[in-house]
Design brief:
The protein is built from four helices and 21 strands. The chain has about 300 residues and is mainly beta. Among the domains are: about 80 residues, no CATH class; about 60 residues. It is flat. This is PepSY-like beta-lactamase-inhibitor. It comes from Dyadobacter beijingensis.
């Protein structure tokens, strides 16, 4: 069975009893650790119709469940549940599509509305199908019109943080060890809507009399695709340093009709350990922004959209 295939665990009812021992995986070759099931049952004693999906092999699972006629989606490991959302599939607030359609990135379809239930990083999460691609859509706050104040959408449905390099794939650790005097600080596993992974890793390296932060982005084949010294944390680069935009980047941006009339917010180029990488952020009007990571060959490594209410 593929590592990311769904694993269905059925709660079998015997004489009105719903004990942990009654939980059996459909695929006898695939085993869900009993302790992970117990974590779910501790939070949701009446949980039934549990569906587990591996997120990080043998460490973290996504679980979907039913409890008291409501449905939930959550992450679970051996000791806790988090990112727990209540699923409200037929109750998308009308201000959401209205806000998106006022931005440069309208015309897509929102679905899968969920709202925060326990230990989440965003109050609300949906799926936004935009130009044939699914994005994880997160929104928060109220704007001037009473609708959502701001929203982001990108291909990553989960961004799992670790401060232990051993929690990341071996190829990440091996790559870091090849960089002289590099100290690992934090890593993020980007779990994408298509079940692929990217690994966003940060480290510190001493350069003469100062420490520099190196940011790296690996694909799930173990290849280092992007790196930069311009980011002090995952959200904000320092000042732009790219005066002349390479023609392939210009061509890519001009090939996005929704960005016609854009202006640059950030233009960053870096060469770290011989790897050239680009980060571009553009704005269309006052409601819409898009950030794009380009590798040395100008392939798009990641793209994220930002919209806000007016």
């Amino acid at each position: 069975m593929k590592a990311l295939a769904l694993i269905l665990v059925l709660a079998m009812m015997l004489s009105g009893c719903n004990n942990l021992n009654d939980l059996r995986p459909v695929d006898p070759g695939t085993e869900i650790p009993e302790i992970a099931v117990k974590v779910v049952k501790a939070k949701f004693p009446k949980a039934e119709e549990l569906v587990f999906k591996p997120i990080l092999a043998d460490k973290i699972w996504e679980v979907k469940l039913k409890s008291d006629a409501e449905r939930y989606s959550s992450l679970v490991d051996y000791g806790k549940m988090w990112e727990t959302f209540k699923i409200l599939p037929n109750d998308i607030p009308s201000p959401l599509p209205e806000m998106v359609n006022r931005s440069a990135f309208g015309g897509g379809k929102l679905s899968g509305y969920t709202t925060s239930y326990y230990a989440t990083t965003t109050p609300n999460k949906l799926i936004y199908n935009y130009k044939g691609e699914d994005y994880s859509f997160e929104w928060t706050g109220l704007g001037a019109t009473g609708g959502p104040g701001a929203a982001t959408f990108d291909p990553s449905i989960y961004r799992i943080t670790t401060y232990e390099v051993n929690d990341l794939p071996v190829f990440v650790k091996d790559s870091l060890q090849k960089i002289p005097n590099l100290e690992f600080t934090v890593g993020y596993t980007w779990v994408r809507m298509d079940d692929s992974r990217k690994y966003y890793v940060m480290g510190r390296q001493k350069n003469t009399d100062r420490m520099e932060t190196i940011t790296m982005l690996f694909d799930d084949n173990g290849k280092l695709r992007w790196s930069s010294l311009a980011f002090s944390h995952p959200a904000a680069p320092n000042n732009s340093n790219l005066d002349s935009i390479p023609p392939p980047i210009t061509a890519y941006l001009e090939g996005m009709p929704e960005l016609v009339g854009y202006e640059y917010v950030w233009k960053v180029v870096n060469n770290v350990q011989g790897l050239t990488s680009y980060y571009i952020k553009v704005r269309k009007g006052i409601t819409s922004e898009c950030e794009i990571y380009f590798d040395k060959d100008f392939n798009v490594i990641n793209k994220k959209f930002f919209v806000r209410d007016i």
